[in-house]
């Protein structure tokens, strides 16, 4: 049975969306993209709510299947379009390790990122307890630094879905709390990994959405993110 082209509902200002877009670019998957403007509330439109009552993006529709979590979408896309690749290892234990990192991104890293960004947008930056969020996110940096003590990437020595899922969120919080600071090298492994990820061709997709997010959060939060000191010019 020939399946139709997958449809991805997206707003590339969202980190989980950007991980799906990165993967789509890496695997050169033919996907129909439909933009849902989160900052204008388009996710609350009646049609979209019927599709995804969680009113979140990314949402992937492929024939009868509707997926509403970026991590599940990543897994589905590699299983459909990259069956022999290393992004989702064949070896069961290696795959479980990747899955564990996906859950870390979902339940820990992204939650803390989302708490910070939504608070800036909702309350304006001047009213945000920045030190609290810095503590929470630096803890996450420390955890990732420890993950990277075991291997070159987040879940293996080569690139997996774990890296693609984590890097889009990390780059987002990096706007606020840079991983690389001139004063101290607190997370040398994380810094090296992040630099490696930025060399990927598909990372351009992330860069574009990240810049759009930076602009709208600054505008709504009435502030400016710190200027990157050691960020390499793209």
UniProtKB/TrEMBL annotation:
Signal sequence extent: none
GST N-terminal domain location: 4-85
GO molecular function, one term: glutathione transferase activity
GO BP terms, alphabetized: glutathione metabolic process
Highest taxon above the source species: Eukaryota
Xref: Gene3D superfamilies: 1.20.1050.10, Glutaredoxin
Pfam families: GST_C (PF00043), GST_N_3 (PF13417)
InterPro entries associated with the record: Glutathione-S-Trfase_C-like, Glutathione-S-Trfase_C_sf, Glutathione_S-Trfase, Glutathione_S-Trfase_N, GST_C, Thioredoxin-like_sf
SUPFAM superfamilies named among the record's database cross-references: GST C-terminal domain-like, Thioredoxin-like
Protein known as: Glutathione S-transferase E14
Species for this entry: Drosophila rubida
Phylogenetic lineage: Eukaryota, Metazoa, Ecdysozoa, Arthropoda, Hexapoda
């Amino acid at each position: 049975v020939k399946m139709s082209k997958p449809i991805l509902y997206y707003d590339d200002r969202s980190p989980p969306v950007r991980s799906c877009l990165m993967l789509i670019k890496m695997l050169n998957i033919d996907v129909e993209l439909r933009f849902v403007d989160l900052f204008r509330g388009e996710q609350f439109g009646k049609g979209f709510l019927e599709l995804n009552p969680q009113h979140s993006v990314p949402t992937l529709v492929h024939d009868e299947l509707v997926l509403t979590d970026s991590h599940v979408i990543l897994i589905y896309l590699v299983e459909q379009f990259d069956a022999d690749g290393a992004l989702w290892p064949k070896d069961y234990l290696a795959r479980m390790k990747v899955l564990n990192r996906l859950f870390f991104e979902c339940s820990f890293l992204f939650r803390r990122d989302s708490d910070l960004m939504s608070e800036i947008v909702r309350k304006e930056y001047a009213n945000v307890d920045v030190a609290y969020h810095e503590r929470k996110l630096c803890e996450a940096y420390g955890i990732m630094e420890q993950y990277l003590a075991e291997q070159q990437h987040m879940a293996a020595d080569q690139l997996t879905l774990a890296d693609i899922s984590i890097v889009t969120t990390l780059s987002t919080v990096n706007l606020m709390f840079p991983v690389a600071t001139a004063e101290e090298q607190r997370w040398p492994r994380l810094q090296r990994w992040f630099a490696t990820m930025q060399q990927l061709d598909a990372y351009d997709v992330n860069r574009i959405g990240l810049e759009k997010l930076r602009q709208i959060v600054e505008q709504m939060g009435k502030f400016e993110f710190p200027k990157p000191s050691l960020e390499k010019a793209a």
